[in-house]
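Quick one, tokens below. Sequence please?
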């Protein structure tokens, strides 16, 4: 399922945000948006729920068989899809804030959010990116990975939203047709 692949992308992107320049930095040297783990928790684990539910929807499981069983599985899918949508929205919000605020970096012997007051304008002024002495190239690193998280979480919102609508229709309409035998 697509959401599984997108979840993996979010988890890997979040892991990479933790190691700018390929090195380990202390938590007081990383931005809050990195530490909130939105790609790992929101776009990753929470979006895996609808993917797993969709795979399991074909089996009988605890819901049993027949019309009620189908509706039970669809109801389960509604809850897991809603969790997926919420996780993707969390990932989108935190990643967007990470882009707007900018990275925490060392400049003028001070670790701080040196681009916070620019309201995201620093993104279009590459000469400002070199104000960060440590970690090297952290602005490009964060820009690339947070942008990837924004795009993937938007796709996750759409896919989980479609599954949410589909499952809701499935609960309301159900699939209670009698199986016909062919002779």
């Amino acid at each position: 399922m697509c959401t599984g692949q997108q979840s993996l992308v979010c988890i890997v992107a979040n892991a990479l945000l933790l190691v700018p320049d390929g090195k380990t930095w202390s938590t007081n040297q990383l931005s809050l948006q990195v530490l909130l783990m939105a790609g790992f928790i929101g776009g990753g684990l929470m979006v895996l729920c609808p993917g797993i539910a969709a795979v399991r929807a074909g089996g009988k499981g605890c819901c049993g068989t027949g019309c009620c069983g189908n509706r039970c599985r669809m109801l389960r899918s509604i809850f897991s899809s809603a969790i997926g949508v919420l996780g993707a929205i969390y990932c989108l919000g935190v990643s967007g804030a990470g882009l707007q605020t900018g990275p925490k970096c060392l400049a003028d012997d001070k670790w701080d959010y040196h681009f916070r007051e620019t309201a995201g304008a620093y993104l279009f002024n590459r000469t400002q990116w070199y104000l960060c002495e440590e970690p090297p190239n952290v602005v490009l690193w964060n820009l690339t990975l947070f942008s990837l998280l924004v795009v993937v979480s938007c796709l996750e919102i759409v896919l989980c939203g479609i599954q949410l609508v589909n499952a809701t229709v499935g609960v309301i309409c159900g699939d209670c047709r009698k199986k016909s035998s062919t002779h």
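The first strand starts at residue 105 and ends at 107. The helical segments are 2-17, 32-35, 38-56, 66-101, 126-129, 138-173.
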